[in-house]
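Box 3.1 A note on notation
Throughout this textbook, protein chains are presented in two layers. The first layer is the amino acid sequence; the second is a token string describing backbone geometry. Keep the layers aligned when reading.
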Amino acid sequence: MGKSDAIGKKLMCNNTYFADAFNAGLFGGETLIDSTNLSEIDPAEIELDDPETGTDTFFNKYRDVLKKALIKTDGKNYFILLGVENQTEIHTAMPLRSFLYDAIRYTKQAEDIAADYRKQRKNGNPPKMTRTEFLSGWKYTDNLIPVITLVIYYGTDEWTGAKSLHDMFSEDVDEKILECVPDYKINLIEPNIIDNFDKFQSDFGKLLQSIRYKDDEAELTKIFTGMTAIDKLIADAISYYVDERWSKMTETVEGGKVIMRSKALDMIEERGKLANAVATVKNLIKDFGFSIEQACHAANISVDDYKKNSEN
């Protein structure tokens, strides 16, 4: 497991951040998912063998995180399954990947119900079923638990990958054909297009806001100026996804939380100065024919720092 995968998984194993991601990302900030009503589920998605054909081929897929949630709305209580896929890079075929995860999980639910009926018959307590229900392994009164997959993208570039199954088809496919093909759209959190971070009720929103403005010193200064003590996990994530130089700049305070505001602000200021120096070097080289060494000397920046920060 890579570092980015480990950080993303740790974030979503935290029920508070998990619930906040769904509530803000899918439900407009409404507290539909209660962090206290979440339970972890094995994220392995296994396409089971067919008991009728005896097929013993298994197809394994692994989600990042999967939880069962007890939802209480309009006086009703029911369960849903919530899965998360963390992405540092754009996955160009994400609709197909998410669709496969959900389909396998629905299939597993149906197979578990059918297996329970087989067990009842084996124990001498056959369930009352019509012939159609018996052949299907599914009663008319049976129900599936809804499955929702949320893709959390920790990058700053626009998500240019497909966002629905239909996006993955050729543009030449006739609309009459597409009308007969059910679409599948991914639920995507994309920091770059979030316009209201107040929908988030935890520090997870600060992380996404920092990612969106990672290259904007003025906006980062506003974020960190108003930032109080935060969870160390969030601080580690901000350091990883925004600027790794902040990883050793946290100060532990009461309650195990950390403060990274003052030192981070200093670093943001330095980043601004460095960006200006890089721009100056580029102008001197382009407009006045300076060598890299001459331009760096004039801009008071080392050649190494210039090369490291001039890729863009």
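Residues 117 and 127 are 7 Å apart (CA to CA). The radius of gyration is 25 Å.
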